[in-house]
């Protein structure tokens, strides 16, 4: 389960209750915790925060949501609709069930920055159009588990992966050597995340 599937289900009105929506959201959070904690440490806290915000909003708008659930649950099945139509023909009466037309708009703003999987087009264009050379000094901002700016770490470039068949740079295409080597294999970064000193100093 991911946010894309949840968005599609919500857009198509497939959720029958707030509890069903929260179940999918919590499953997405658990998947994020399981698969992203090591490689993308900022994502699990965001997922936890999203579940917390959604839960508080569902509690806040519980009365309106339950009203929609009651109306949705009262929509007759196909067989019941056919039976109702026959009765209407006999009795000459008509009845309709209408869902409320007033939408509920909720904006979830996790933090005031772009997530890692959304790339600023100007920075991407700069990274794509630039010729990367070995030995160039750079620095990169790392964030803490809450997604807030942490500290900069410096290093030198050690080469770049080639463009793919679509003319785009692969994810984490820039090979680097860190000034403070902690012994990990984390020696590849996204080119658009590297910040070069003014003048492009070489190491």
Automatic annotation (TrEMBL):
Alphabetical keyword list: Bromodomain
Biological process, per Gene Ontology: regulation of DNA-templated transcription; response to hormone
Keyword field contains Magnesium: no
Location of the region described as Disordered in the Swiss-Prot/TrEMBL record: 74-97, 180-203
Residues annotated as domain Bromo: 1-35
PROSITE patterns membership: BROMODOMAIN_2
GO molecular function terms noted in the UniProt entry: DNA binding
Full protein name: Bromo domain-containing protein
Organism: Phytophthora kernoviae
């Amino acid at each position: 389960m991911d946010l894309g599937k949840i968005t599609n289900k919500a857009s198509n009105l497939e959720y029958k209750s707030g509890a069903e929506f929260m179940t999918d959201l919590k499953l997405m959070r658990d998947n994020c915790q399981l698969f992203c904690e090591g490689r993308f440490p900022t994502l699990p806290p965001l997922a936890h925060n999203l579940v917390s915000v959604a839960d508080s909003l569902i509690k806040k708008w519980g009365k309106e949501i339950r009203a929609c659930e009651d109306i949705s649950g009262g929509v007759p099945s196909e067989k019941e609709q056919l039976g109702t139509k026959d009765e209407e023909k006999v009795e000459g009466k008509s009845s309709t069930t209408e869902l409320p037309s007033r939408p509920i708009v909720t904006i979830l703003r996790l933090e005031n920055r772009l997530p890692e999987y959304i790339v600023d087009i100007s920075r991407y264009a700069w990274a794509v159009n630039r010729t990367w050379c070995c030995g160039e000094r750079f620095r990169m901002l790392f964030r803490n588990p809450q997604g807030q700016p942490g500290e900069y770490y410096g290093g030198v470039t050690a080469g770049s992966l080639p463009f793919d068949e679509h003319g785009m740079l692969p994810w984490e295409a820039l090979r680097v050597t860190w000034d403070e080597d902690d012994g990990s294999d984390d020696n590849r970064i996204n080119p658009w995340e590297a910040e070069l000193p003014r003048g492009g100093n070489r190491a």
